[in-house]
Amino acid sequence: MESVESKTGRSGRFSLVRVNTTLESTAGELLVEEHQDLIYRPRSKTRHRASDLTAGSRDLVGRPLAPTGKGWRFRSDPTVLMRFSAATANAHRIHYDWPYATRVEGYPGLLVQGPLLTLAMAEVLRLANPSARVHELRHRNTAPLYCGETAHISLSVKPAEGLSEGATVHLRDPLGGSVAHLSAELETIS
Question: Which of 7, 16, 45, 150 has the smallest count of CB within 10 Å of its CB?
Answer without folding.
Answer: 45
